[in-house]
Write a structure and sequence with these properties.
Radius of gyration: 35 Å
Largest sheet: 6 strands, mixed
Order of helices and strands: HHHHHHHHHEEEHEEHEHHHHEHEEEHH
Structural class: alpha/beta
Strand content: 5-15%
CATH class of the largest domain: Alpha Beta
Helix content: 55-70%
Number of helices: 18
Number of strands: 10
Number of domains: 2
Length: about 575
């Protein structure tokens, strides 16, 4: 910025030296040649210094702009990763990625060029105005009769541009969110022949942004020509009035030329402000959207001094838990845990308790299965263990410690989740298994793959463990994806395991492989298993039956078949709908 100011001030030296040059040319002819040479050399030095300062300005601001965009993106992404699931329930992925990409790029142009231009034009405007007062006060007052109204009009137009720019950026983000959602679910779109529907939805979003862009262009179309006309109208008035003063002998010819050059600088600065106003407003709008995200705080927060989580026995206990989802948020956990607990209530309605006075214990090293009708609260129960949400009343305890008293990293490092919808990442099979423990050796990865029965199908792949699986594992079958997820959990080697309907979407053959892998995974671990297929939970140590968020009964399969009407109904219904 210092180089920008210096370059702007040196630019003002040109009309002042030109003034001396012309006054010398029309003055004493005997000394004119020597003075003109001296002024010309001085001009060359000024231009060289200005070029040097401009180089420093462009180089440093370019570096700063690139660093700002890199820092903003990494900070924003890192911040997003630590926000609670509730935030992502209320935002579309496309909207978030739009802020990571297009909004940050807009801020980059603001930092790397627009601010420097704004500073340069400000220096030119203020410096040229001061020089005009030095040359001739009446002419300057005539010139300034045009500038303040133009600046005030610019401020009014700028406010309008800021509002339009923010609405335009929001509309583009919404359209991108719809497009990303459709692309992510392209098989479903094509299966339901909804290509035209999605195309129309995206077209409508783009049309909304286009109409807003047209309004923004119309504002610019009125503003820029109006400013240019006003400024050059002022210069014309100065030329007419100053010319008459030169003819009358009240003003030197060189002074008039310098005055006209400085007036052109002022006109250029004001005209430049017209374009910069829109850039600045767009940049401010984009930065506001970015900082809106950076100002988001997790709804699940750690205490100032969280306790360590170490124990000899890893039991899990729900102690009189009452829980409902935040108003206005749906209650699914995306790829982390698949919930089946229905939609949340509107913001103005009384919250619906998903879990009511829930007391339940999973002893260390044992398996507790949870069954119930859809919407009973099974997946919500599982989501509270890794503290994706906080309970409103009661407590969830792991190894005797309230999960709210320990650090999230310490808590979640002791838990592995195998969800119904397997979350895999683009890359190799080896990379996805190692996601459970990034520092694991190839031998450890191989051992986990063997135990999860991944090796059986990896042997058939030409690239083996280095085979790429595509985005979300689209090149693999459902059973193969689940086995990779199980291998990932095995490699993490946690004491607590959550299985959320891990076999519900598999055919009989795939289920047999996955079930064998799950048997290895559950060995020696405290396991909470949510399943619709009763064949997968009959060997559980205990089975909890929940209904409408309340615990109905707990017991082994044989006992429940004799004592629980709800369990019997669910069991026979499952057999009737899926005998396998």
């Amino acid at each position: 910025m210092a180089s920008t100011v210096a370059a702007g001030l040196l630019q003002l030296a040109f009309p002042l030296l030109a003034r001396d040059l012309f006054n010398e040319a029309f003055g004493d002819q005997a000394m004119a040649g020597e003075r003109i040479n001296r002024i010309a050399l001085l001009l060359a030095g000024v231009f060289a210094a200005q070029a040097a300062f401009n180089f420093v300005r462009v180089w440093l601001l370019g570096r700063i702009g690139e660093r700002v965009v890199a820092t903003l993106r990494t900070r924003l992404y890192g911040h997003l990763l630590h926000l609670s699931p509730q935030f992502f329930m209320q935002r579309k992925t496309g909207e978030i990625t739009s802020r990571l990409t297009s909004d940050v790029s807009t801020v980059q142009s603001l930092v790397s060029s627009a601010l420097a231009q704004f500073t340069n034009q400000t220096v030119t405007l203020v410096g040229a105005t001061a020089a005009l007062f030095y040359i001739d006060v009446p002419l300057t007052l005539l010139m300034l009769a045009v500038v303040p109204p133009t600046i005030l009009a610019g401020a009014a137009f700028a406010r309008r541009l800021r509002r339009l720019s923010r609405r335009f950026q929001d509309a583009v983000a919404d359209a991108n969110a719809d497009a990303e959602e459709a692309i992510a679910n392209i098989r479903m779109v094509q299966a339901f022949t909804s290509e035209a529907v999605e195309e129309e939805r995206y077209r409508n979003g783009i049309e909304r942004s286009y109409n807003l862009a047209l309004s923004r262009v119309l504002v610019r179309a009125w503003f820029i020509p109006t400013v240019i006309f006003a400024m050059f109208g002022g210069i014309t008035a100065v030329f007419w009035f100053g010319g008459r003063q030169v003819i009358a002998g009240a003003l030197a010819a060189g002074d008039l030329i310098a005055f006209l050059l400085l007036s052109l600088f002022i006109a250029g600065s004001v005209a430049g402000f017209t374009g910069l106003f829109s850039q600045l407003q767009e940049g401010l709008g984009a930065s506001r959207r970015i900082f809106d995200l950076l100002n988001e705080t997790p709804t699940v927060r750690e205490r100032p001094n969280p306790k360590p989580l170490e124990a000899a026995a890893w039991d899990v206990q729900f102690d009189r838990v009452w829980f409902h989802y935040p108003a206005g948020a749906s209650n699914h956990l995306g790829a982390s845990i698949t919930a089946d607990d229905g939609a949340s209530e509107p913001a103005e309605a009384e919250p619906r308790w998903v879990l009511e006075d829930m007391s339940l214990r999973v002893p260390a090293g044992e398996t507790l299965a949870v069954v119930g009708e859809s919407g009973a609260g099974k997946s919500t129960l599982a989501a509270l263990i890794p503290r994706f949400f906080d309970v409103q009343e009661g407590a969830v305890r792991v190894a005797g410690s309230d999960v709210r008293d320990v650090s999230l990293k310490a808590l979640r490092s002791k838990i592995a989740i195998v969800p119904q919808e397997t979350a895999l990442f683009s890359g190799s099979i080896r990379d996805n298994i190692r996601y459970g423990r990034p520092d694991a050796s190839d031998e450890d990865v191989q051992a986990a793959a063997d135990a999860a029965h991944v090796t059986e199908f990896v042997r058939t792949l030409p690239a083996g463990f280095d085979a790429t699986i595509g985005e979300r594992g689209v090149r693999l079958s459902g059973g193969q994806r689940q086995r990779i997820a199980i291998a990932r959990a095995l490699l993490k080697n946690p004491p607590i395991l959550i299985l959320d309907e891990a076999t519900s979407n598999l055919d009989a053959a795939s289920e047999a492989w996955v079930q064998a892998a799950l048997t290895n995974l559950k060995e020696g671990r405290t396991s909470l298993v949510i399943a619709h297929r009763f064949s997968t939970i009959q060997d559980a140590d205990q089975i909890a039956v929940i209904s409408s968020g309340r615990l109905e009964t707990v017991g082994p399969h044989d006992v429940l078949m004799q004592t629980s009407a709800t369990y019997q109904r669910l069991y026979h219904h499952q057999l009737a709908t899926n005998p396998a």
